[in-house]
Design brief:
This protein is an alpha+beta fold. About 20% of the residues are buried. The strands form four sheets. Strands 1, 2, 3, 4, 5, 6 and 13 form a seven-stranded antiparallel β-sheet that branches. Strands 7-8 form a two-stranded antiparallel ribbon. The chain has a two-stranded antiparallel ribbon with strand order 9-10. The chain folds into two domains: about 190 residues, Trefoil (Acidic Fibroblast Growth Factor, subunit A) (Trefoil); about 35 residues. The protein is elongated and about 115 Å long. It contains four helices and 13 strands. The N and C termini lie far apart (about 90 Å).
């Protein structure tokens, strides 16, 4: 007898199209495993966008989508000054169209900055990658300079990742770095904005290996915080409160006190045992 097919109990209406089930492939775009494999196979030197402030580290490329031409933050090692360089001037000899904004990468050492941070600190230091390595700084009135060899409060910046992926840089006076248009239509860098608008948003790119390094550090921190910390009190006391490789050492006076305490303790126990025995004999 032929086996009967099991009918679906789902209601269907005339004219409804039957949807075919599509099996998700392992390599389908959007799956977490595919994304991890793609990141693992990424060239360590590839320039990528950071997704969190902690990922902004190492060689850093900073540019602004100014109109009519985007500009990058360059360092002039001769004058020790920050220069806003127009990227659309970098056309090839065959006059090919400019590269898409987010596909741009640095093609000169003057466009590369080195970002460092103190472990656990939300602030970063931005140092030039060319010359002798000068730190980007801003004073109380918002003047931006890059001529200092040492870092202090004026050389500290707090990166803020915006919802669209762009980055705003806040200085130690809680003012934001911005691209400002001055007389004659020229552009200059300032750090005196109270709010984040178009002028205060920058695109930032870092190398993939440093972004991966930051993510691995975060995973280690999360793993260390998952379980409660177990403390071996006895072992800790012997290691940190004893001499002679964990052997407790006390003075002769302390030894006498300890012996007397033990002796008194034994006598007390004997008296208690004696009383308990007398009580039991009384009721027998």
């Amino acid at each position: 007898m032929p086996e009967e097919k099991i009918r679906s109990t789902k209601l269907k209406f005339k004219g409804d199209k039957t949807k075919k089930k599509r099996r998700r492939e392992d390599g389908e775009e959007g799956s977490s495993s595919s994304k991890r494999r793609k990141e693992d196979n990424e060239d360590p030197e590839t320039w990528v966008l950071p997704e969190s402030p902690n990922e902004i580290r190492g060689p850093t490329y900073i540019f602004h989508p100014s109109d009519p031409s985007p500009v990058s933050l360059n360092f002039n090692s001769t004058t020790n000054r920050v220069v806003l360089h127009f990227l659309d001037k970098e056309k090839s000899e065959d006059e090919a169209p400019p590269v898409a904004l987010l596909d741009r990468t640095p093609n000169d050492i003057s466009q590369v900055w080195v970002t460092t941070r103190v472990a656990g600190s939300p602030t970063i230091n931005i140092r030039s990658g060319s010359g002798e390595g000068k730190f980007l700084s801003a004073d109380t009135v918002g003047v931006v300079s890059c001529d200092r060899d040492a870092r202090g409060p004026q050389e500290e910046w707090t990166p803020v990742i915006m919802p669209d992926g762009m980055v705003a840089f806040m200085n130690s006076y809680e003012k934001y770095l911005s691209v400002d248009e001055v007389a004659g239509g020229s552009l200059q860098l300032r750090a005196d904005s109270d709010e984040v608008g178009f002028r205060e948003r920058f695109w930032v790119k870092v190398q993939h290996k440093y972004k991966k390094e930051a993510n691995e550090e975060e995973k280690k921190k999360e793993g260390a915080m998952d379980g409660p910390t177990k403390i071996d009190e006895t072992g800790t006391n012997h290691v940190y409160q004893a001499w002679g490789a964990g052997r407790s050492v006390v003075s002769s006076k302390d030894k006498k006190e300890l012996k007397r305490a033990r002796k008194e303790g034994r006598l007390a126990e004997a008296l208690l045992d004696r009383r308990a025995k007398l009580k039991s004999d009384r009721f027998c």
